[in-house]
TrEMBL record:
Main localization, broad class: membrane
Organism of provenance: Halobacillus alkaliphilus
EC top class named in words: transferase
Domain PLD phosphodiesterase intervals: 236-263, 414-441
Transmembrane segments: 7-23, 29-48, 60-78
Keyword Hydrolase: no
Record InterPro entries: Cardiolipin_synth_Firmi (IPR030874), Cardiolipin_synthase (IPR022924), PLD-like_dom (IPR025202), PLipase_D/transphosphatidylase (IPR001736)
Pfam families: PLDc_2
Record EC number: 2.7.8.-
Keyword Zinc in annotation: no
Descriptive protein name: Cardiolipin synthase
CDD domains in alphabetical order: PLDc_CLS_1 (cd09110), PLDc_CLS_2 (cd09112)
Listed Gene3D superfamilies: Endonuclease Chain A (3.30.870.10)
Length: 501
């Protein structure tokens, strides 16, 4: 109903705008059109005010709608601004709770006492906001780059005996993609349950032939927010950026790598691809399976039973710390990832190390990083020197100046394109997953991150980070301030598009 009303609004705006300013109709008709036009514009602005956004954002959108009424309104509703908290994902929010209920564990683990107060706070916030508990009966292994990740995934897929659940933003049918497809088809033909979720925009390059061949072999497929229908439902701007494999309920994979040859460094335009993935075993798999089930139910209207796939196991607690999975997106508390990043940075005692391919932070994260540096905390930021886009590259660099002035160390990775999304705090806890530090990941995309507390894998992340610094150059503050006017112009121009990155 709301979608219909918005379409009617756009049509009325267009018609009344034309009649008011460009037609040669009688004065009475033009005056009536102007009145209707004004009522619609003012009503939209009134709704904007009632949403209690920041004054700056509210005024920006009001100006856009007042001065560019038709184009401004269309951009507003299709930029993901209008209905993030509205009706678009109401049903998904309700279903989420049904799936999250089995994860609730009211027993206090002895491993909980291993965490300090700040780590317990972060863990509690994740459970309160997203419903995913921390567990101490899981083990995660760090997989560095595609050379380690894809062989591990393919090996476990070939060993699958019961089912394979896969959810990916980008799934291509190039060389590595076809290798995955062949295994999926083979397992489906053997009678295993194989379910695949792929994002319509991220996987737009996957051929129709590949999709048909998988379906013919018995692979069940679900497309997340098809682009064509997305134009009419406002869902085109909300993408599923997750990368998840769950196999037989005992092994899962999650992290930064999509499925495509470029993630193995085979794209000559990009070159070497630096990324990080995780292999997960133990109880944390139930959380990843739950995320898949929630999304599958949303797309296919099919209810899956968590205990059928990943029954609760009486597993002894591991001594390597806690693992907690978090899903975020417009069906949850908007800005949850940003809030967690803010708290991790603000509560840091010694160090904050960040690696991200796209760094377009919101005000809260910028403030937290600046304050951390002022307190003498070792703050390091690593971004790629080589980028896969003009806007992300220069928008990221537009933030260097203020951070360098605060004493934050910035490194630009030079060996190739760095795509990993990592935050390491005090050398003890970390976040790794699919969320970038940009507007889309923090507000619009469906993401999944693993939060690690005092696990041995955090040490691996630290070691890898140090190795990455050897392939990076540290940005010199003086050289940055003396950059040319052309570079400054590019940065300022790209920064204008920060909300769309």
């Amino acid at each position: 109903m709301k979608q219909t009303r918005q379409i009617i609004f756009v049509l009325l705006l267009s018609v009344t705008f034309y009649l008011t300013f460009f037609s040669e109709q009688p004065f009475f008709i033009r005056a009536l059109a102007a009145a209707v036009y004004l009522i619609i514009v003012l009503s939209v602005c009134y709704v904007l005010i009632l949403e209690n956004r920041s004054p700056y954002k509210t005024l920006v959108w009001i100006y856009a709608i007042l001065f560019f009424p038709v184009a401004g309104y269309i951009f507003f509703i299709y930029s993901g601004q209008l209905q993030v908290r509205g009706h678009l994902f109401d049903s998904k929010r309700r279903d989420n709770q049904r799936y999250l209920e089995p994860l609730i564990d009211k027993n206090t683990s002895s491993g909980w006492n291993q965490l300090n107060r700040e780590e317990q706070f972060i863990s509690n916030r994740i459970e309160e906001e997203a419903g995913f508990p921390i567990n101490f009966s899981s083990e995660v292994s760090v997989l560095k780059d595609g050379d380690e990740t894809f062989p591990a995934i393919k090996e476990r897929l070939r060993e699958a005996k019961d089912y394979i659940h896969m959810e990916y933003y980008t799934f291509r049918d190039d060389q590595i993609g076809q290798e995955i497809i062949d295994i999926l088809k083979e397992k489906a033909e053997l009678g295993l349950e194989v379910k695949v979720i792929f994002d319509a925009a991220g996987s737009i390059g996957m051929s129709g032939h590949a999709k048909r061949s998988m379906k013919k072999s018995g692979v069940e497929m679900a497309c997340f927010h098809p682009i064509k229908s997305g134009f009419f439902t406002q869902k085109i701007n909300f993408r599923n950026h997750r990368k998840i494999f769950v196999i037989d309920g005992d092994t899962a994979f999650v992290g930064g790598l999509n499925i495509g040859d470029e993630y193995l460094g085979r794209d000559p335009k990009i070159g070497f691809w630096r990324d990080t993935h995780l292999k997960v075993e133990g109880e944390a798999i139930r959380s990843l399976e739950t995320i898949f089930m929630i999304d599958w139910s949303y797309l296919k209207d099919e209810v899956l039973d968590l205990d059928t796939y990943t029954p609760v196991q009486n597993t002894e607690e591991l001594s390597t710390g806690g693992v907690q999975i978090l899903s975020s997106g417009p069906d949850a508390n908007r800005g949850m990832i940003s809030e967690l990043y803010f708290n991790m940075i603000a509560n840091a005692r010694h160090s904050v190390w960040i690696a991200t391919p796209y760094f377009v932070p919101d005000k809260d994260i910028r403030t937290a990083l600046s304050l951390a540096a002022k307190k003498g905390i070792d703050v390091k930021l690593m971004v790629p020197e080589i980028s896969d886009g003009f806007l992300p590259k220069y928008a990221t660099r537009s933030y260097f100046g203020k951070f360098l002035d605060k004493g934050i160390d910035i490194y630009q990775y030079e060996k190739g394109f760095m795509h990993q999304k990592i935050m390491i705090v005090d050398g003890q806890s970390a976040s790794i997953g699919t969320a970038n530090v940009d507007f889309r990941s923090l507000n619009l995309n469906f993401e999944v991150n693993a939060f690690l507390f005092r696990t041995s894998s955090v040490t691996s992340l630290i070691d890898n980070y140090k190795q990455d610094m050897e392939h990076s150059h540290k940005v010199d503050a003086k050289a940055y301030r003396n950059r040319g006017i052309v570079v400054r112009t590019k940065e300022s121009f790209a920064r204008l598009f920060s909300p769309a990155l």
